[in-house]
Each structure stands twice: as C-alpha cells, then as structure tokens.
Amino acid sequence: MAMSFDSYMKDMVKPMREDLTRLGITELLTPEQVNEAMEKSKDGTMLLVINSVCGCAAGQCRPGVAKALQNDTLPTYTYTVFAGQEKDATAKAREYLAPYPPSSPSIALFKDGELAHFIQRHQIEDRSADMIAGDLIGAFNQYCK
C-alpha cells in the first residue's frame, strides 16, 4: 500500500506541530488566518513562531519558546505557521517580517501590530534553548507590559 507524500508529511510533522500547540500556541493555516491574527495584534502583543522541521527548530527554537512561555509577562496572543507545510500562510506571515529575509525557524514579537523583536535562524542555530528563552523573556518584559 502506497502512502501519499502529503499524508506522510502530515504524519511526520505532527509531533513538531504539537511541540508548540500543546503550549496553547494557535496554528495559522491560511493567509486569511494570518491577516486576522495580525489585525488582532494591533491591540496588544503577539508572538509568531515560524516553525520548521530542521534540527535547530527541534533542539533550540521550540524548547526555547516553551521555556520563555513560563515567564510571568507574556504576549497577548501566540501563533505559529509551519514553513514548508502551510506555504501560503507562511508567505503571508513573512510579508509582516520585512525587511528581514525568509528565515525558518524564526521568532517574531509584535507590539500593536508592529514588529518589535525578531530572532532569525542564524540567531537560533548556534545558541541554546536557554539562551533563546532568555532573549524572548527580555523582549516579553520590555514589550508585553
């Protein structure tokens, strides 16, 4: 019995999605959902995680986000898009990250609809989850009060 590529990928990335959704982070699956989330974020703060299948997403990004979300001060909204999976939603999310080039994984914090803090892949892949969490906690404490 042959399995379709799409079915295989859905099964493959399911635990990678759950690393974030089990934390209460909402997945954005369409460009329309991204636009709605950005509209909501104009009143408050929003964390947007660009998820990925790579090793630095698994070893540093997702665990760093999980640790940061244990902080007392948190963003109003938390969302994620999955690069390479929901391609249209990810492309739409990246429009809001200009002038930064596409980067996966990456982590963005918006305040009142404006990009306030951005962690790109090159700032994730050579740092520990604790360092990424510390970076995010500092941003949360600065922008989410």
TrEMBL record:
Top-level taxon of the source organism: Bacteria
Family: Belongs to the bacilliredoxin family.
Protein's UniProt name: BrxA/BrxB family bacilliredoxin
